[in-house]
Design goal:
There is one protein chain. This protein is mainly alpha-helical. The protein folds into two domains: 54 residues, no CATH class; 167 residues, Orthogonal Bundle (MetI-like fold), CATH 1.10.3720.10. Helices cover 71% and strands 0% of the residues. The protein is globular and about 70 Å long.
């Protein structure tokens, strides 16, 4: 009986995980399949999983005949996301190093105030920020989508600070004895040892910025500057929805996210598991 329980227990767990995974991946499989169907087959009363006939018509429409070539939306999202990731890693890493490794008066109080800012709802800041951008002439530019997410990211600073605290301070002391400056310690010791945490923050930032719909919708009005989430909204109107191009656009939009997670998965899981040990 014990042997059977030892076998049935893990088997039931694996079967349950497989069922949940199939349920979770089902919508993505349907989206991919629908992107290769003819427009009429996507909403057919007798749906088929496999496209018949198989066509690239929806992708051709995105590139050639859409409201605007979808490649431009992808380009806008790509360069905004890359700039935010690079800037956020630099700013958050420097702030986290100060809170984790330096000793100065009021450090803990300042860090407490920083964490308290997490309690401020994002929606509460939309109106004052929009008014400020209007006065500065920054509406309908990518500035509100790049600079504020870089300089105002409490979670990123908190995440890296918790990871930096797990690195033994003996490394810092040995480097200081050898005459290294704090900047040299930061660049040569802390950052190389913090690749998992940096990768975790990069992946989380990518998903957040790449899928941001509200920001571009509020601050942009020029179609040429729209990002992917807002661009996909062009295929949905009050009268109808172009399901074929919409599915094709959503498929193209999700590919970068999947690739980023696949290549950074090792560092991502390690960073999540190690952050917050201390």
């Amino acid at each position: 009986m014990r042997g059977q329980r030892r076998i049935l227990g893990p088997t039931a767990t694996y079967v349950g995980c497989i069922i949940v995974a199939l349920i979770a991946i089902g919508p993505f499989v349907w989206m991919l399949s629908s992107s290769f169907k003819e427009p009429g087959d996507v909403i057919s009363l007798t749906p088929r999983l496999l496209p018949n006939p198989f066509t690239f018509e929806n992708y051709e429409y995105l590139v050639n005949n859409g409201v605007l070539p979808f490649i431009r939306f992808l380009g806008n999202s790509a360069y905004i996301t890359v700039l935010v990731i690079i800037g956020r890693l630099m700013v958050c890493a420097l702030g986290a190093y100060g809170f984790a490794r330096l000793q100065f008066r009021g450090r803990d109080a300042a860090f407490g105030l920083l964490l308290a800012s997490l309690m401020i709802p994002d929606m509460l800041m939309v109106l004052p920020l929009y008014s400020a951008y209007v006065k500065a002439g920054l509406i309908d530019t990518h500035f509100p989508l790049i600079v504020p997410p870089i300089v105002a990211n409490t979670f990123g600073t908190f995440l890296l600070r918790q990871f930096f605290m797990t690195i033994p301070k003996e490394y810092d002391e040995a480097a200081l004895v050898d005459g290294a400056s704090h900047f040299r310690i930061f660049v040569s010791i802390i950052l190389p040892l913090s690749k998992p945490a940096l990768a975790t923050l990069a992946v989380l930032t990518f998903v957040n910025v790449w899928n941001d719909f509200f920001g571009p919708l509020v601050y942009l009005s020029d179609v040429n500057k729209f990002t992917v989430p807002v661009g996909l909204a062009f295929f949905q109107t009050q009268d109808s929805t172009q399901y074929g191009p919409l599915m094709a656009g959503a498929t193209l939009a999700i590919i970068p996210t999947v690739l980023v997670f696949v290549f950074a998965q090792k560092y991502f899981t390690r960073g999540i598991s190690m952050t917050g040990i201390k």
